[in-house]
Design brief:
Length: 105
C-alpha cells in the first residue's frame, strides 16, 4: 500500500444510499460489547468522534435491530483502526440484485 499510497484517499463515505436486504426469517442479533483495554479507550473514543464528524458513522440514540462488535487494531502510527465483525449479519444478508462496486468509481 505504501507504494501506491496516492491511490488511496482519506476515510470517507459513499455518496449514495446502500440498502442491504436481510432475510426476515433470521432473528436479528445484538452482539455483546467486547471489553476495550483501558490503554486503548481514549484512542477508541477519539477515533469514534473523528468517524462521526466525517459522517462515516452516525451517533445512534435509538435501539437498532442488529449490533456488531468492534475489533480494535493498533496501527504503527500510534492510532487505532476500528473494524466491525459482521459475521452474523453476513449470514442473514440476501444477495443483491445490483453490483455495489459500480458506486466506487
Amino acid at each position: 500500500m505504501k507504494k501506491y499510497k496516492d491511490t488511496f484517499g482519506e476515510l470517507g463515505m459513499l455518496k449514495t444510499h446502500y440498502h442491504m436486504r436481510i432475510d426476515e426469517n433470521i432473528e436479528p442479533i445484538v452482539s455483546a460489547a467486547r471489553q476495550i483495554p483501558y490503554s486503548q479507550r481514549d484512542k477508541v473514543k477519539t477515533e469514534l468522534k473523528r468517524m462521526e464528524k466525517l459522517g462515516v458513522i452516525p451517533k445512534d440514540e435509538e435501539p437498532t435491530d442488529w449490533v456488531n462488535t468492534i475489533i480494535v487494531v493498533n496501527k504503527p502510527n500510534d492510532i487505532v483502526r476500528l473494524c466491525m465483525d459482521p459475521q452474523r449479519l453476513n449470514s442473514a444478508r440476501l444477495p443483491s440484485d445490483t453490483h455495489s462496486g459500480r458506486y466506487l468509481n
